[in-house]
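User: Hi! I'm working on a homework problem where we have to compare a predicted structure to a textbook description. Could you give me the structure for the chain below?
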Amino acid sequence: MATFWYSLRPSQLIKRAKAKGYPILANQYFMPLIQGMPEPASIIGDDYWTPSDKFWMVKVNAVNFKYITTNKKSPFIGLESKEAAGGKEITYQVPVGRIVGGKSKPIAVKFRSSGKLTKSKAGTAEQERGSAFIFSRVLNDNASFDKWQDIVGDDKTYPELVKIFKGNVPEDWLISYFAQQKVLLDKVKPKKFSQFNRDGGFMDFVSKFVAKKFNIKKKDNWDPADIWVIDGDERKYITEIKESLEGPHQTIGELNGIMRRMFKNKEVMGISLKKTGAIAYYEEVNLDGLIPDTKDYNYDVPMTDLKANFMIEAKTGMFTQDVKIMVDSIKDNKTFSFQIKALDSGKANQNLKFEPTMKGASSARLGKAPVADVVEILESINSRAVFQNDYKKYPGTLKEFTTHSKGETYFRNEVLPAIIGGQKGISTDISNIDDIIANIKESYGSKMDRKANTRCKLMGLDFFYQISKLTKNQRNEFITDMVFLAQKKAFSKRPDFGPFGKIF
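Assistant: Happy to help. Predicted structure tokens:
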């Protein structure tokens, strides 16, 4: 799958085409296009593009897309083209005088109609590779940074980060890198000349190993380490793991025992990385082998700590899709905010994700709670509480809402009366059920809903309804379990999470 980095604004598109050796593309196509478009600022191009790519991706808004594809003044009219994505993408073959193998070869430019024309943010891969590189510089190359600005000033460090990010590195990530490396040296203290593996190597081995040996398809559902700090040759540790776990009867617990020993000996240390501010913190997780029972550890979570809002936003014509659970731990001095929303808010037909943020002195995203585990534990605590994280079981349109088994009648007569109002109800900005139903219908009618926003809200409300069937103690136990699941902290119901250090 191609990776795009949207950052090129109009003048930069023209400059980039010239810099790559295509003045015809710049002067005869991009320049007159930008001059003639109704909204010339509403265009952004892929900074990752090279002439060897299949096409150059350029996003525009709907008005400009219509101009490009239908207006006679568009320089692309008449060129060989191919539409895709239901008429929202079109690829033009632009003759630029490029000769390959004695034949003229055009440059393919793909225009996509999009409502999102913001500059791309650094992806997870870039961020983690940047962390690994900084760690190697400070530990093995003796690079020294007294402040984050020193990273920019180091002529061996910053140019490499620019290569990793394929452009200038955002200041907030430079601040985070400085804080991360300080914690690494002060708290983690790996051995000198350790390797920092993020791609291939040990990461590839352990991901495939747990999938094949223990049927754990996503490595992060076992151990959320983003990089592995490895002392010396990783092959000897891979061999040890393979030989120790040969045969049909070994367990994930045995692997965890090996990984704990390797971690404590600073041979193989899995590190989970979260973006930090100016100060970073460090925590070791699942290193002592002690498995707590959440019945003895429960957070106190009244129904009023469950939150859902229904006010219609003027800008969008709909309400927000998410619901939240606030978890206050007085004894730990921590507050967890569980946001329950679509896996991908920009797409239709999405199931929910359960992702908490720890707030307070050390704000950080904790990771997603595996949904299958959330649902299974919910039903194991109380068999009456049954939730299916399946968008197909909920109405996607206003018309469906009026007739669906989980439509208006279900929510008006069952869900909302159980969770709205009184001291045992959830926190919300609207308490009248008729008003809530009216806003649900209005939200369905928004052009921006796309069979996603309102449906996700209903799924979240149904999840709250199932929680309302639990006793107070059951509810506290269940939501505590969710917090442990999200952090990948081993506990009695899920004892198999692997050991890791967390910088956050």
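For your comparison, note the following. The chain has 16 helices and 18 strands. The radius of gyration is 26 Å. Good luck with the assignment!
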